[in-house]
Amino acid sequence: MGRMSVEELPEYAERVLEVAELIPPGRVMTYGDVAEWLGEGGPRQVGRVMALYGGAVPWWRVVRSDGTLLPGHELRALGHYRDEGTPLRQAGRSAEGHIPKLDMRRARWDGADPDPRAGTHT
């Protein structure tokens, strides 16, 4: 399924999706980061846009601030994160399904770093 044309998308949704496409492989932004970048809306509005229209963009790069993988899409997202080398934290023994979380300290992108891999690996 391809992305809708610009005419079919609300302006705010188009702007959110454009930010999602800017996030380099191996890096992430939170829903709140995207809203702050745009200077409009908030995490819930960004999450709603991603839920409705985000399928044709790298949706796995727009995440919850605690690094928890998107419920119901954990394995698909995890595959993308591993392919892209996104920093992950090992799941604790008590974590449901032993699904890791994102290492937000290392994976979070502020939009200013031109090198998508700079600072992601130590």
Description:
It is built from five helices and four strands; from the N terminus they run H-E-H-H-E-H-E-E-H. The protein is mainly alpha-helical and 122 residues long. It has a two-stranded parallel ribbon. The protein has a two-stranded antiparallel sheet with strand order 3-4. Helix 1 crosses helix 2, helix 1 packs across helix 3 and helix 2 crosses helix 3. The protein is globular, with a radius of gyration of 14 Å. The C terminus is likely disordered.
Secondary-structure topology with pairs:
Elements: H1 11-22, E1 29-30, H2 31-38, H3 43-53, E2 62-63, H4 74-84, E3 88-89, E4 101-102, H5 104-107
Parallel strand pairs: 1-2
Antiparallel strand pairs: 3-4
Helix pairs in contact: 1-2, 1-3, 2-3
Helix content: 25-40%
Average pLDDT, all residues: 86
Distance between the termini: 38 Å
**How many helix segments?**
5
Low-confidence stretches: 115-122
Largest sheet: 2 strands, parallel
Could you state the order of secondary-structure elements as H and E?
A: HEHHEHEEH
| Largest sheet strand order | 1-2
Number of strands: 4
- Beta-strand content estimate: 5-15%
Shape: globular
Gyration radius (Cα, Å) is 14 Å
Counting helices, strands and paired strands, the structural category is mainly alpha
Give a quick rundown of the structure.
With 122 residues, the chain is mainly α. The chain has helices spanning 11-22, 31-38, 43-53, 74-84, 104-107; strands at residues 29-30, 62-63, 88-89, 101-102.
